[in-house]
Queue: 2 jobs
Job 1
Amino acid sequence: MRVKEPGVIPYNDEVATDPTHEKIISFVSLGQTFSLRLQVPLYMWNALSTEDWDFAEKLVRERADGMRMDAARSGKLLQWQDHLQEFARTCVYNQFMKYQVREGNNEGHAVPLGW
C-alpha cells in the first residue's frame, strides 16, 4: 500500500476501472494504411499537450515499417501490429511521465504501466 503524501491524489491501482478516451493513430506502412486504437486513461489524456501527442505519434509512424519488416523476417508477420500497439502505449506513457516531471509531480512513479 502506498503512503499518501499531503496534497497528492494517488493514481488508481486498478487500472482496468479507469475511465478512458480512445486515441486513434493512423499511419502508412509499406504503402498500406493502418490504425491503432489506444484506450488512454483520462488522467493521461487530459495531461498531454498537442506536442506530446504529436511526438508519440511521430515515433510510432517512424517505427512501423521496421517493426513490420522485422516481424516478416522472423516469420511472425501477424504479430507486428500487436508489438506496434504496445510500443505506442509505451510512447504515450513516456510522454505522460515527461509531463509529470514538467509539473514537478514526485508521484509519477506511482502511475501504473499496465494501463
Job 2
Amino acid sequence: MDIKTKLKERLLEIPVSYNAFREKYRLASDLNVKPEEIEQLLNELCKRDILKEKIEYICPTCRESTVLYSQLIEMMTIEDNCFECEECGDLVNSIKDKTGYVFYSVNNRQDLINW
C-alpha cells in the first residue's frame, strides 16, 4: 500500500462526530515513514482545505505552549510576526517560537475520501 493511501486511511479513522487532531510526527511514526515523506501530502491536503493545520508555539518567557490554527495566527499578530501570550501577556514570535509540532484535523471528510 502506498503512503498516500495509508495516510488517507489513518486520517479517516477519526470518527465523524469527533474533532481529533493528528500530530505530523506521530502520523509518520504510525505509517512507518519519515515525516518528510508525508509533509508534502499534508500540505496539499491543507491547501485544498481538506485538512486544518494547527501549529504549537511556546512562550519564551513563561514557557506556556499554545496551539493555534495557521489562519488564526494572521489575525492575532500584533507586531513583527508576534502575538500575545494568553498566560503572561508577553510576545510570542510566530516564526521563532514554534515547537516543531504540527497538528491536523479533517475539515472536509468527503473530499478526503475522494482524494
